[in-house]
């Protein structure tokens, strides 16, 4: 810096052959303005202004990866979005594994109770059960031909019917359940002709109930008749059993 200032100072000073007045004998010429005898370098000047910034240097090599920071706080739950469009049905999957065997179901047992019987002799005694001893069907043996009564072994709803040939007297017959008449039939006999009488009913029976037919009234109303070409029959069967 000192050397630069000295150079500048020399450039400012005039040369010896330029603009130097003629020296007259005995006349002391003044020194050029700004020139000191025995000069020395002046004090350093103020620093110059900063120069224009240089171009950006090349990128440095990447540094080592830092440690993983702590997890941030969970943000608030966002609003439920709109339902998307239903996608196309995918291909059918493979059959699944066979499931476990189920529990045993209710029994498929079919409840049966039925009979169909006919009269073999003319009835002469009124007010007692009529004994139908001609058996058409009595596989479960729920009808007792020794007493003329049907015995309920399966609680449920039953259908009973009778068809009587009337000859040669009037007929008054009733169907009984547990010593109580529930159905009555009367037919007046026509002279020299065979007549018919019938009746049917639905009854709910409990275990041990009994059902039978008998003539009611006096003896002159017992015109039930049967022979080799005419029958008087009594029939009953279970429609459906109680489930409880």
UniProtKB/TrEMBL annotation:
UniProt region (Disordered), positions on chain: 40-102
Native organism taxonomy: Eukaryota, Metazoa, Chordata, Craniata, Vertebrata
SUPFAM superfamilies: TNF-like
UniProt keyword list: Collagen, Secreted, Signal
Signal peptide range: 1-17
Protein name: Adiponectin
GO CC annotations, alphabetized: collagen trimer; extracellular region
PANTHER family: ADIPONECTIN, EMILIN ELASTIN MICROFIBRIL INTERFACE-LOCATED PROTEIN ELASTIN MICROFIBRIL INTERFACER
Superkingdom, natural source: Eukaryota
Biased segments, Basic and acidic residues type: 55-70
Domain C1q: from-to ranges: 108-244
Subcellular location: Secreted
